[in-house]
Amino acid sequence: MQTQLAEWAQGTDIGQEADAILRRCVHCGFCLATCPTYQILGDELDSPRGRIYQIKQVLEGVQPTYVTQQHLDRCLTCRNCETTCPSGVEYGKLVDIGRQLVSERVERPWHQRVLRNALRRLMLSPAFGPLYHLGRWVRPILPAVLQGKIAVARPAGALPVQAQRHARQVLMLSNCVQPAMMPSIDAATQRVLDAVGVGARFAAGSGCCGAINFHLDAQEAARQQMRANVDAWLPLLESGQVEAVVVNASGCGGMIKDYAHHLQHDPAYAERAARLMPYVKDVAEFLAPLAADVRAKMRREPGRSAFHPPCTLQHWQGLRPLTERLLADLGFDLQAFDDAHLCCGSAGTYSITQPVLSKSLRDRKLQAIQETLPDTIVSSNIGCICHLQSGTDTPVRHWIETVDEAMHG
After folding, report:
1. DSSP assigned state of 103
2. Could you tell me the pLDDT band of residue 277, with boundaries at 50, 70 and 90?
3. 172 and 279 belong to one structural domain
4. Exposed, middle or buried: residue 39 (CB in 10 Å: 0-12, 13-18, 19+)?
5. 229: containing domain
6. Which run of H or of E encompasses 281?
7. Position 65 in a domain
8. Pairing verdict, β 303-307 and 168-172
9. CA torsion, points 393, 399, 401, 403, in degrees to nearest 10?
10. Residue 244: which of 293, 183, 285, 191 has the closest Cα?
11. Which helix (H) or strand (E) holds 376?
């Protein structure tokens, strides 16, 4: 695609990066077939190709409008189009640029600004945990739409004692929303790692991966969080005190694996972020070489399960095949279902900012899954787990919880 950058964009880092991405797009339209929002809305402006054209217009000097912003907001950033694209267009990077440029030029309506700021501040606040627990107490009297946002608690159970005794040590993420929403996931991860001789710890000074801020119009605040994590993790990794950052939420993992890209123009952090990348492992990546050891510790079979691969696992990180092989090796009786490559509609805070589209995608996903009659739905991202559970009575869990139960239950 030929692009004539506006004068303000010429010679800038954003302009050069966007121009290189745009020039790879050949308007073939393959992306339309795998775009969730296009399948529902049927509007090409709500497809990757249409959004690419709108971003191109902005870069060429056309003033965006609130309508432009709406079309970009509706994108789930699932990156399914990248998996499909024969030309290797890095759409995810381009839509990040487009959203930033449009947010700088279009003021959102006041109610959207209030909602987005409230989400950022609440989810990143120490008060999130207590408020979430309070929500559980009053859940029965809340409106149905709010009840669906509050996951039923599962007890974390006892944590490993003296995990530091293991020669192998890894880091896990801290200060995320997951410990408040579903503490059983981190606890299960720690127990499974402990069972195969790996201790898990949390690094002082680390915090949220940055995804919440980044996708709610606060990209620089997100980069500050990224820098803090690089500072907290890299010295421990490079000194050999720990061997990896093990991530059990694929949304966080996808964001962290993009740190080198997001900090590429930061002279103090570009090279350091790049050095961090080889150490970041999804929990399935880390456990795959230890599958035989994990299986040997399991007392029973996990049973008939449908595995929902989050977009951040399969399209961002390309780890769906590895994860499904691992689950099969661990005895999961996996049930294949239609359209497993499509987004469930969770997408971080998308289920709050785009509730109608999100619910439609969730219901389509659950209809396909339920046709296989699974005993359990398993996934690998807290957002997908809570979102899917809000629409079904079938238990939805992180697969690491199921493995932990098969070991210790």
Report:
1. H
2. very high
3. yes
4. middle
5. 163-286
6. strand 280-282
7. yes
8. unpaired
9. 120
10. 285
11. strand 376-379
Same domain, 269 and 323: no
Residue 170 near residue 242 (C-beta atoms within 8 A): yes
| Length of the chain as a residue count | 409
Answer whether residue 208 is part of any domain: yes
| β 332-334/303-307 pair status | parallel
Reported as a single tens digit per residue, the pLDDT across 352-369 is 899 999 999 999 999 999
- 129, burial (CB in 10 Å: exposed 0-12, middle 13-18, buried 19+): middle
Which two structure tokens, joined as six digits, stand for 19?
A: 């121009």
8-state DSSP, 2: -
Q: How far apart are CA 329 and CA 108, in angstroms?
A: 49
Over range 1-17, report the average pLDDT: 89
CATH code at position 83: 1.10.1060.10
DSSP bridge pairs for 200: 170
Distance CA 8, CA 68 (A): 20
Predicted local confidence at residue 136, as pLDDT: 84
Output the pLDDT for position 31: 92
Confidence of residue 131 (pLDDT cuts 50, 70, 90): confident
Give per-residue pLDDT as tens, 297-353: 999 999 999 999 999 999 999 999 999 999 999 999 999 999 999 999 999 899 989
